[in-house]
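Deliverable D5.2: sample structural annotation.
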Amino acid sequence: MEDFSIARVECQSSLPDGSFFMTLDRLMAGAEPRCVINYWDLDTYTREKPRRRAVGYGYVEHRLCLLRESRIPGLLDEIAGCDGAHYLVEFEMGFNSCSYRWWGPAPMGYRPLVEFANDLLQVAGIRAHRIPIDSESTR
């Protein structure tokens, strides 16, 4: 079996040092599958190797199970903006995939996605970035 990406998290910000890109990959070498988080600061994406952090396969499966059990809205009200940040969280599981993109703080319905992404950032030891959630929103 080949290595493959399970999840991707991206933030593109108009603020300096606000943009990043992260993948969660499953590595199939050896007897047991294992996972690794790759993180790039987008200002250095083309010049540097990613920061890498190994993470237990069981832990990743637990986090994905929590997401599978979540109710996440498929379509939200339209929103747009110029300054600030927009976010992307994507998942691929075999031939199945889904992606969520939003601008500004995440709508409340996206809380499971934000918790997943922020948890990966924390596990990877990245303290400079956190994805905000709009606690005032009813979206």
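Annotation notes: The mean pLDDT is 83. Helices lie at 57-68, 111-123.
The annotation will be released with the project's public dataset once the embargo ends.
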